Structure formats: structure tokens, C-alpha cells
Amino acid sequence: MRRVAASRVFLNEKEFHNNHVVELFEHLVVNHYPLKGELPMTEWLGGTIIIRGREAYHTRQVLSPSELSTDDSSGNGHIERL
């Protein structure tokens, strides 16, 4: 089990949470919940985690809903699969 946290987590294009934790098992999302304090064995990634289906992706940028819903690749953000 891997537990990561970020400044913003998008569940879809309209629903996001600030300071949120995502739990992964073999690269698949199994749970997510608000970060209410320091949690042991949690990686703080910062930036934004985007959940698509059962997979999660991370970028170091803190995205807004409008940035997520556009296909503007002009930014310099790198997105990686968690």
C-alpha cells in the first residue's frame, strides 16, 4: 500500500479537494480522504493528483478546474502515473 498526498486532488473535471490523501495498491486507487494532519508513511507530493477511473496521475503544478478541462499542452508541467 502506498499513501500519497497533494495540494489538490481531482476526482473528475468538476470535483476536487484541497490537501487530500490517495491510497494506492499496485498503482490502483483504493481510497481517498482529506488530509487532516500528519500521517505516518505518507508521501507529500504537492501539486495535483488526477484520478481517472482507478488510476492516479501527478503533476507538480497546482491545477485549477479550468486548466484540467482544457487540452492546453503549452504548459511545462510533466504528468506521471503513480
What would you say this structure looks like, in words?
- The protein is 5% helix and 51% strand.
- The protein is mainly beta and 82 residues long.
- Strands 1, 2, 3, 4, 5, 6 and 7 form a seven-stranded mixed beta sheet that branches.
- It has one helix and seven strands.
- β5 and β6 (55-59) form a beta hairpin.
- The two termini are 12 Å apart.
- The protein is globular and about 35 Å long.
- It has one domain (2-64): Urease, subunit C, domain 1, CATH 2.30.40.10.
- The mean pLDDT is 90.
CATH superfamily label: Urease, subunit C, domain 1
- Name of the CATH class: Mainly Beta
Low-confidence stretches: none
| Main pleated-sheet profile | 7 strands, mixed
Radius of gyration: 12 Å
Give the strand content: over 45%
CATH topology: Urease, subunit C, domain 1
Q: CA-to-CA gap between the ends?
A: 12 Å
Number of strands: 7
CATH architectural category? Roll
Secondary-structure-based class equals mainly beta
Total count of helical runs of at least 4 residues: 1
Q: Which features does this protein show?
A:
7 strands; 1 helix; seven-stranded mixed β-sheet; 82 residues; Urease, subunit C, domain 1
